[in-house]
Design a protein that fits this description.
- This protein is mainly α.
- The chain has eleven helices and no strands.
- Helix 1 crosses helix 5, helix 3 packs parallel to helix 6 and helix 6 packs across helix 7.
- The chain is globular.
Length: 281
Amino acid sequence: MSTPQPPMPQQAAAAPDWQAAPGTSYTSPIPVTRTHLGHALSSEWTKIKSVRSTMWTLGTFLLLVVGIGFLVAAQTTNEDFQDVPYTITAFFGLLLGQICLLTLGVLVVSSEYGTGMIRTTFTASPQRYRVLAAKLIIFFAVAFAVSAFAIGLVGLFTAGMHSDGSDVPWGGTVLMGALYVSLLGVLALAVGSMLRHSAGAITTMLGVVLLPAIMPAFLMMSDSLRTIGEKMQEYNAPNALAKIFRLGNESGHGGAQLGLLAGVTAVAVVGAFVLLERRDV
């Protein structure tokens, strides 16, 4: 009688290779591309043309500059333009219209902080400097185009009414006037980025524009402060625009005033970029 053989041990099945790569990899149907400044510019253009504040502020700006300019031109004669450009009638509307550009410049950035949408913006574009640069470029382009259009339209209307009045070239006043008020708006945007509060930034910018026009009357009462008052009077926003448009006996063409504003705006923009990278949302 034969002895039963013990069962042969079965070999354990090989463990599946859980780390093995799948046979086919997934490909997203959405094209993936590296983002650049052009994408941020497109985004900011969509924002600025979609919000109602842009329509209201720019509409009011055009109404003030063009409307007041036409009214002033209708009250003038050919003799009033012997030594001044035809665009001088736009000066009176710009004194009020510049406040609209200041307001819009602040709202371009501060409104996103107020609603909390800035978090979404920075999530979509973690490069914060790119977002701020796009806001500055788009706002400046829009403000300059609208300002130049308004000043030029007033100049054309005035020239049509008084074709024999002035031989003074006025193309330069269109460019310099539009550049001055646009830089004021860019300065407001930088202040809005630093303060992150609409009311506070708008109030600050109103002080920047109005106080230098009011304070010289008090400073020049004192002999020790007279020099400061005279410089403040020479470089404040209303007098700067008056020089650009050659109003009254103002000498020069506003180049020094425009240069000072450009310098102050550049410093504010640099400060806005620095604070944007150092602070949380």
